[in-house]
Amino acid sequence: TFNTLWKQVGQKLEHYRNYPRLVGECGGKNYHLVHPSADLENAVNCTIRSSFEYSGQKCSACSRLYVPQSLWGKFKEAMVERMKQLKIGDPTDFSVFTSAVIDEKAYDRIAGYIGHAKSNLKIVHGGTHSKKEGWFINPTLVETTDPADKIMREEIFGPVVSAFVYPDAEIDNVLKLVDETTPFALTGAVFAEDEAFLKKATETLKYASGNYYINDRSTGAVVGQQPFGGGRHSGEDFRAVVI
To answer: For this UniProt entry, which segments traverse the membrane (predicted)?
Structure first.
């Protein structure tokens, strides 16, 4: 009977209910989108931390950046000034901001992207590296006029962030770029004071990241407090929104 069948289903569910649910989480090509209404200082500081903490060796690190022309001059100046203050060296020295990348394979891969930028794009700051005393790569800011360049599409997993400067009036096209440029969808952040834009961006970018941040840096989740996973090639799309 139906009641007997339903009871059997319930017993099976009872058997499985204590098993933990696993959330898959893979790579990312995480974005910071800066709107013309953004608080400049906050956007810069958040980009510095997200891009260069742990030498960019975290899946949630910001590695692609979209900045309006109206803010780019001041944004770039502030980024470079702060990057000059970052101390790179021995992690046992507590005045050090970050240290070397994890191994020679990672060093060579990241250096390859920097070489590509030197040949085809523009190094705004950094771009230097040496493995004489360790696998050290200095924080690097790249500017590109091609939002589809591989440096904007492929995961680097190192201290390299690439900026595309867009005309303010083309913000709707930029939302589409952010959403469609890469198959990854792990984390992302939007910086704006314009509430109407924030509402539109949140709707447009709802599939572009698993963890979505408003006026805060893209980063991972707090274990036990937020689910952490990405969409598309980054995971199973368990989502957290942080404001």
So the answer is: none
Task: Check residue 240 and report its DSSP letter.
Answer: E
Q: Each residue of 166-224: pLDDT tens digit?
A: 999 999 999 999 999 988 878 899 999 999 999 999 999 988 888 889 999 887 666 56
Say if CB 140 and CB 123 are below 8 A apart: yes
Burial 10-41 (b: 16+ CB within 10 A, else e): eeeeeeeeeeeeeeebebbbbbbbbbbbbeee
Residue at 236: amino acid letter: E
Query: What's the length of the chain?
Result: 243
d(CA 106, CA 3): 59
CA dihedral angle for residue 31, residue 35, residue 41, residue 44, rounded to 10 degrees: 20
Bridge partners, residue 144, by sequence: 164
- Compute CA distances 219 → 116, 147, 152, 212, whole Å: 26, 22, 18, 9
Residues recognised as catalytic: 25, 59
111-137 pLDDT, tens digit per residue, is: 999 999 999 999 999 999 999 989 999
Q: Which helix (H) or strand (E) holds 187?
A: strand 187-191
Using the Cα atoms of residue 172, residue 153, residue 40 and residue 61 in order, give the sign of their dihedral: positive
Q: Which two tokens mark 214?
A: 């408003």
